[in-house]
């Protein structure tokens, strides 16, 4: 029996944040898979880039994806300290490689999957020579697997930032998830940097 080839989408969130990790989602679905529009409408699921969805809409997608036995996803993060050490681009590519390698088990690799990465992401460890790998500008707007990878990455990172509020309650992480909002900037100036902050990103603000 011929194996169905997989499409793997990879996208990151948190690249521009002042605090928290950069997180990458990698998601595999079978080539040619089409979602049932009636089912998506019934479940209030809108397939688009994670930034264009509400938090509740993203969570509904992740709940739905977990119930599917033909779609698989993993996430990986690189810490603020590592981002300061290696710079954000290298950190994002490292997270992308980690997420991909967690996802791509032997059975998926046997199908010679197509791999699409959003924006400036690239895979390390020579994967670009082993598989058909392509970086697509605005892939999160045009490729379903990348859109979904963006969603799972966003839900994972947002949940982490909410949990970190317990240890760092002064910054309002549940509100802004580490991005440079006016509220976050005000808290930064008052409380200074925490271990969750990227020092190379915050120097001009504190």
Structure, explained:
There is one protein chain. It contains eleven helices and five strands. It has a single domain, classed as Ribonuclease H-like superfamily/Ribonuclease H (Nucleotidyltransferase, domain 5, 2-Layer Sandwich), CATH 3.30.420.10. It has a five-stranded mixed sheet. The model has no long low-confidence stretch (mean pLDDT 94). Helices cover 45% and strands 17% of the residues. By secondary structure, the protein is α/β, with parallel strands linked by helices. α6 links the parallel β4 and β5.
SSE topology sketch:
Elements lengths: L5 E8 L8 E9 L6 H6 L12 H13 L3 E8 L1 H7 L1 H16 L2 H4 L4 E5 L8 H4 L1 E5 L2 H4 L1 H21 L8 H4 L5 H10 L7 H4 L4
Parallel strand pairs: 1-4, 4-5
Antiparallel strand pairs: 1-2, 2-3
Features:
globular; alpha/beta; Nucleotidyltransferase, domain 5; 206 residues; five-stranded mixed beta sheet; 11 helices; single chain; 17% strand
Question: Would you kindly provide a brief summary of this structure?
Answer:
The protein has 206 residues and is of the alpha/beta class. The chain has one domain: Nucleotidyltransferase, domain 5 (2-Layer Sandwich). Helix content is 45%, strand content 17%.
* Overall average pLDDT: 94
SS summary, helix count: 11
Largest beta-sheet characterization:
5 strands, mixed
Q: Count of DSSP E strands?
A: 5
Helix % is 40-55%
Strand order of the largest sheet: 3-2-1-4-5
Strand residue percentage = 15-25%
CA-CA gap between termini: 61 Å
CATH hierarchy, class: Alpha Beta
Number of domains: 1
The value of Rg in angstroms is 18 Å
Summarize the helix and strand pattern as letters: EEHHEHHHEHEHHHHH
* Unreliable residue runs: none
Architecture per CATH nomenclature, i.e. the level-2 architecture = 2-Layer Sandwich
- Shape, please? globular
Structural class label:
alpha/beta
The CATH superfamily is Ribonuclease H-like superfamily/Ribonuclease H
Fold-level CATH name = Nucleotidyltransferase, domain 5
């Amino acid at each position: 029996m011929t194996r169905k080839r997989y499409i793997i989408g990879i996208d990151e969130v948190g690249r521009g944040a002042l605090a928290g990790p950069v997180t990458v989602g990698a998601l595999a679905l079978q080539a040619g898979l089409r979602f049932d529009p009636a089912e998506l409408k019934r479940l209030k699921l809108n397939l688009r880039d994670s930034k264009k969805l509400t938090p509740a809409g993203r969570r509904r997608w992740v709940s739905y994806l977990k119930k599917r036995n033909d779609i698989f996803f993993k996430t990986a993060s690189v810490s603020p300290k590592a981002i300061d050490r290696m710079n954000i681009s290298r950190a994002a590519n490292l997270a992308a490689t980690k997420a991909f390698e967690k996802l791509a088990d032997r059975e998926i690799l046997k199908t010679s999957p197509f791999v699409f990465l959003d924006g400036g992401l690239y895979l390390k460890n020579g994967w670009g020579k082993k598989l058909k790998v392509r970086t697509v500008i605005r892939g999160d707007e045009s490729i379903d697997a990348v859109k979904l990878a963006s969603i799972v990455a966003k839900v994972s990172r947002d949940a982490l930032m909410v949990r970190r509020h317990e240890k760092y309650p002064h910054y309002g992480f549940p509100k802004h998830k580490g991005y440079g909002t006016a509220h976050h900037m005000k808290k930064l100036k008052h409380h200074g940097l925490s271990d969750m902050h990227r020092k190379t990103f915050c120097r001009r603000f504190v």
